[in-house]
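User: I'm curious whether this sequence folds into something compact or stays loose and floppy. Could you predict its structure so I can see for myself?
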Amino acid sequence: MAKQEDVFKKIVAHAKEYGFVFPSSEIYDGLGAVYDYGQNGVEMKNNIKRYWWEAMTRLHENIVGLDSAIFMHPTIWKASGHVDAFNDPLIDNRDSKKRYRADVLIEDEIAKYDDKINKEVAKAAKRFGESFDEALYRKTNPRVLEHVQKRDALHKRYEVAMNANDLKELKQIIVDEGIVDPISGTKNWTDVRQFNLMFKTQMGSTGDSQMDIYLRPETAQGIFVNFLNVQKTGRMRIPFGIAQIGKAFRNEIVARQFIFRMREFEQMEMQFFVRPGEEMEWFEYWKKTRLKWHQALGMGNEKYRFHDHEKLAHYANAATDIEFLMPFGFKEVEGIHSRTDFDLSQHEKFSGKKIQYFDPELGKSYTPYDIETSIGVDRMFLSVFCSSYDEQTLDNGETRVVLHLPKQLAPVKCAVLPLVKKDGLPEKAQEIMDVLRFDFNCRYDEKDSVGKRYRRQDAIGTPYCITVDGQTLEDNTVTLRDRDTMSQERVAIDRLPGIISEACDMNALLRKLV
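Assistant: Here's the prediction. I'll summarize afterward.
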């Protein structure tokens, strides 16, 4: 675990050093859990958003886009349940003065049992070699069975407490399990309390006209209140979806793990409206579809898993997360939820406006059910960045840090490097830049040795480096270097757009999804 923590610290440092993510307001000592995306980070982030947007709206004829306002009427949040139910169970350690989410402390304890089980299995696999029967070992080994029994008992107790919103029982679980504060190492805990996560502000120019409003904690409600607008103007027929990318805000008290949990973040959400009774069929469809979208990036299928919710939200009848293996364990990057007809029904009730769909095939009106897919852009960014980070020792004993980013998501697609800053090579390199810049985000670099320039491009994940040398002036060929293999080949300049496009074109990713 300590080694993984060290790796994560290096990843965070690398993200800042190479212009991906900066602490916000850093010259004023920063602002907790708020970050800015640098010149490379914003390019990569936009590529992630483009991949999601086009997978939703281009590959599905029945999904359209929306961009709703951040400020919305405050009654929306009463109708959605956020005013009354958007809370986290928090607990403080009196010695460290630090605050934690009680549910996260318990879930981490459950994960420790899983780690113990996996370590027992790994030791046995190493001891028995090819003859090892993992399934049989898990069913029969006494130590494994003991860990499984303790984990399952804790899991059940936790599930009951969360579903009953039993704050006293959550604290008792923490006490009974002997969970200690990771900073102070003590068990001196306060009671568990609920804390609402929404930011409140005022709208209006004078005290008399001011109205309390909230910064939206999710983008979904902007879709629900525009359901009829989109359905009627777009002549949409059930089933259909509305997709949106936008900022959301949550007053996270326990914000941690870099950009994994922030107070200002960005979501990519799609609400898919279906006939009542067909929601579970579509729930399974979107589970498979969204997992395929992640796996198409080629970061390793074994790094993903589904995690069903122990406690369903007040609006849901089914919910699961797609988790990704971060340096600090499997963590949620996307949620798929069957939200039933809760949201549309609530807004109909609180607004007094009829929000229903007339189904011409059934000849009747009804309130559609909804399947939601919700992915955090920042968490997706972090999962890609962590998975791509690699420290390599080369054959000559040198080391390099390289980001093996999916080429379509890389902030810079190619770098053009004149071998020396004379003899007409910079001018020729600039000619190549002028050709490629219309199709790709390119960088020109003539400072330092070509080897150092290669390392700089490796560190930001640039798929290709194009070196211009004396031979280029003679035969219009360049040296094309591959980021991952470091192999070099001589290619004609007029072939460069085709080679780079074939490897970096977003359509190559999208074709994997159909």
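Summary: Residues 102-128 form the longest helix (27 residues). The first strand starts at residue 21 and ends at 23.
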